[in-house]
Design goal:
Blueprint lengths: L2 H9 L8 E2 L20 E2 L10 H14 L1 E2 L2 E2 L15 E2 L5 E2 L2 E4 L3 E4 L21 H4 L5 E3 L6 E4 L3 E2 L2 H4 L2 H4 L11 H7 L2 E7 L6 H14 L9 E7 L2 E8 L6 E3 L4 E6 L2 E6 L5 E9 L10 H8 L1 H10 L7 E2 L4
Parallel strand pairs: 12-13, 14-19
Antiparallel strand pairs: 1-2, 3-4, 5-11, 6-11, 7-8, 7-10, 9-10, 14-15, 14-18, 16-17, 17-18
Helix pairs in contact: 8-9
Length: 327
């Protein structure tokens, strides 16, 4: 478990039994009280798995389940888990591909006829209120049912961007084709020789690109099994994190909200607005959730766009993270 599990257990008075501890600790005295232990270590309180590394323990459990049988069949069979999950394609927002479906009270969900494709989003939408502006549009969502001709309603959800990013490389080979692809052009240009992207896309985006490619092959749009010959995952831009309060009840601060100080060689941080002491966290990928982002506009305004580009290119090899600093 992680910190959330520990907080839940402590809140409701549930027993906390550690099953992994750091190497060298005494299993008789090791406890987890306020902070979850999430690093590597050795198994404890786990019977025949005690003393093993977690990966080794996983293998031992898998072997045991394969050896035990129920009705002449093994209790379990080891398989590769590609982490390919059902991914909801719909989003309640304007920016996305329309879902070409019509909702009719008499006929149910009816696809838009091929002759009426593509469905185009209206230009006269407003973003002055929260929510999906397509739900509020006075005319666009109101249509006739393609089957019975009665009043019906367009689907106002749009597709998530992964639907496009999973096959755009095939479309780019013939962007003006009337069909999704021109198989001749796609087969001439594809597969992509070198794909460059962040490691955060390796689990979902790249797997879905392979899934789309194979589905398109079955439908006759392309004649290849794999979309990319080579993959290069560049490093992240990382920055320190700053937080006031505890791990469970604290709040994150942006770099612009913090004043860094150096006293006798020791770094410390203060929240500018309140004067509270700030905990300086490790270098992590820039993210909105932890507020450790730096505005590109502030960088280009202060140093110029070319200087920013040269820094990004020269600071680290492309496969390593860039540790962002203003120093």
């Amino acid at each position: 478990g992680d910190q959330r599990d520990l907080d839940f257990a402590n809140k409701y008075g549930l027993p906390v039994i550690p099953v992994v501890m750091p190497e060298g600790e005494n299993p008789a005295t090791f406890q987890i009280i306020d902070e979850a232990y999430v690093d590597d270590g050795v198994m404890i309180n786990s019977r025949f798995l005690n003393g093993m590394k977690p990966d080794q323990a996983f293998d031992e459990v898998a072997k045991l389940l394969e050896q035990k049988t129920i009705g002449n069949r093994p209790m379990a069979e080891r398989k590769v888990n590609f982490r390919l999950r059902d991914w909801g394609i719909s989003r309640q927002r304007y920016w996305g591909c329309p879902i070409p479906m019509v909702h009719c009270e008499a006929c149910g969900v009816v696809p838009v006829p091929k002759a009426d494709l593509p469905v185009k989003l209206p230009d006269d939408v407003d973003f002055d209120r929260p929510g999906n502006p397509l739900d509020r549009h006075p005319t666009w969502r109101h249509v006739k049912c393609p089957q019975c001709g009665r009043d019906a309603r367009r689907e106002t959800d749009t597709m998530d961007t992964f639907v496009d990013s999973s096959w755009y490389f095939a479309r780019f080979t013939a962007p003006w084709a009337h069909e999704p692809t021109d198989p001749k052009a796609a087969n001439e240009w594809l597969p992509v020789d070198q794909y460059i992207g962040g490691i955060e896309h390796a689990i979902l985006h790249l797997l879905y690109s392979r899934f789309f490619t194979r589905a398109m092959r079955e439908a006759g749009h392309v004649d290849l099994a794999e979309p990319f010959k080579g993959l290069f995952t560049q490093g992240m831009v990382v920055h320190e994190t700053y937080r006031v309060g505890s791990a469970s009840n604290g709040r994150w601060l942006a770099p612009t909200e913090v004043r860094l100080e150096d006293v006798d060689g020791k770094r410390s941080a203060i929240e500018i607005a309140t004067g509270e002491t700030v905990s300086i966290g490790p270098l992590e990928k820039m993210s909105k959730s932890k507020k450790n982002t730096v505005s590109p506009e502030d960088i280009t305004d202060g140093y110029g766009a070319d200087t920013a580009r040269w820094f990004m290119l020269s600071d680290s090899p492309p496969e390593r993270d860039v540790e962002w600093t203003d120093d």
